Amino acid sequence: MSVKVNVFLTTLLVGCALSVVNARYQARHLLIELERLQQHARQLDVDWDQLQLDQSRLAKNDRIEQIARSELNMAPLTPARTQYLTEGAP
Amino acid sequence: MTRGASKSGARVAASKGVAFTKSPVLAVRLPDWRSRMVLFVLFASFAALGARAVWLQGVSNQFLQSQGKSRYERTLELPATRGRILDRNGAVLATSLPVRAVWAIPEDVLASPPEKITALAKLLGMPEADIRKKLDSDRTFVYLKRQVEMPVIAEIEKLKINGLDTRKEYKRFYPQGEVVTHLVGFTNVEDKGQEGMELQHQKTLMGVPGSRRVIKDRLGHIAEDLGMFREPHQGRDLTLSVDSKLQYIAFTSIKNAVEKFNAKAGAAVVLDVHTGEVLALANYPTYNPNDRSKLTGEQLRNRVITDTFEPGSTIKPITIGLGLDTGRITPDTVFDNNPGWMTITGKRIRDTHNYGVQTVSGIIQKSSNIGAVKVSQRIPPQEMWEMYTKVGYGQAPRFGFPGATAGRVRPWKSWRPIEYANMAFGHGLSVSLLQMARSYMIFARNGDIIPLSFVKVNEEPVGQQVISPKTAAQVRTMLESVVGPQGTASKAQVAGYRIGGKTGTAEKLVNGRYSRTNNIGYFAGIGPMSKPRFIIAVMVDDPSGALRTGGSVAAPTAADLFASALRAANVPPDSSITDIIIPEVPLEESM
Question: Into which family does the record put it (chain A) (predicted)?
Answer without folding.
Answer: Belongs to the FtsL family.
